[in-house]
Amino acid sequence: MRIEGLHEKGIFEEPFPFRVIVDRNPHFHYPSHWHNAYEIIYVAEQSFIVTVNAQRYVLDKGDILFIPGGHIHTCEGEVPDGVRVFINFELEDFHCYLSMEDAKSCLSAEQLITPANLEVYPRIVSEIKKILQFNVQKESVGILYYIARILDILVLLCHNASMRQTMAAAGLNKGKKKVGLQKISKSLTFIQENYMRDIHLRDVAGAAGFSEYYFARLFKETTEKSFHWYLNAYRVKKAEALLMDSTYSIGDVAQAVGFNSLITFDRVFHQLKGCSPEEFRKLQVRF
Question: Residue range 243-257: average pLDDT?
Fold first, then answer.
């Protein structure tokens, strides 16, 4: 690895962009730098100081700090017996498992997670320890194992980010969204039961007892997604399960989940998953 300006490059030695470092240097200091990779720092022993975009974090034993790619940060630890774990990975390599737009949105800011966070902390620490144990074993299925662990951590980080946003907006939107969900509940049930058919906004609005205009606005306010986005996302989710079965052709899968056009299915799938249905299927077969 090398730093050019502030940009750290060449941090991955293996073909798969994933790195785990356990550092015990009593006089650790790493100058200001940034990299495209996302980073998770776990303080296993003693304390550690990390500065991210001029924000100083004093990490105690057990604390976890998530740093998105592209954020300038400095690390220093001047304590004896200190142990720090650094985990780096490229988010883009999970594009077939995540919606990149949604993932980057909820993972756009650093997150400090301490033992006081009972909702996600124990589970994230558990996944980190699994990575450390497996890193020692170096089994041949390591890539798949690391993908599974990082995906679990990303889900928890997204959940944590969502909780923070929800808590911040709770006083303003809690009552309004609860009423909205009650109003559109019939439409959600209608989608779940009829997604495989050629349904339109007027059909779903009618099932909920609203005009198209009112329903479209209410649906967007309540779910923060348009009706068409939600319907396509639901269909693509159902398509993922069918793509696991190679006995179904891509065309069969498209029709089974409500897409009358294979071109439309391919376009929508790529927009939501970052890869084509065929690429998604090949990736599942590969692993």
Answer: 92
- Measured CA to CA, the distance from residue 114 to residue 122 in angstroms comes to 9
* Model pLDDT for residues 147-193, shown as the tens digit of each residue: 899 999 999 999 898 887 766 555 445 555 666 677 888 888 999 99
CATH class of 171-286: mainly alpha
Task: Report if pTM > 0.85.
Answer: no
Q: Are 76 and 29 in contact (CB under 8 A)?
A: yes
Residue 113 buriedness (CB in 10 A; 0-12 / 13-18 / 19+): buried
pLDDT, the chain, mean = 86
CATH top class, domain 2-164: mainly beta
Domain ranges of the chain: 2-164, 171-286
Give the span between the Cα atoms of 100 and 182, in whole angstroms.
30
Tokens of 148: 């599974």
β-strand partners of 18:
89
Of 134, 190, 142, the C-alpha closest to 15 is: 142
Backbone angles phi, psi at 239, to 5 degrees: -65, -35
Angular region, 81: left φ>0, alpha ψ -120 to 50, beta rest: left
- Tell me the per-residue pLDDT of 51-92, one tens digit each, with 9 for 90 and over: 998 889 999 999 999 999 888 899 998 788 899 999 999 887
Q: Would you give the DSSP letter of residue 37?
A: S
Show the tokens assigned to 53.
């975009």
Per the CB < 8 A criterion, the answer to whether 91 and 50 are in contact is no
Antiparallel, parallel or unpaired: β 55-59 and 48-52? antiparallel
Nearest C-alpha neighbor of 209 from the set 179, 192, 187: 187
- Most confident of the ranges 12-16, 105-109, 117-121, 126-130: 126-130
**Structure tokens that stand for 160 in this block:** 């944590």
Is residue 62 left, alpha or beta, with left meaning phi > 0 and alpha meaning psi from -120 to 50? left
42, 125 contact by CB (below 8 A): yes
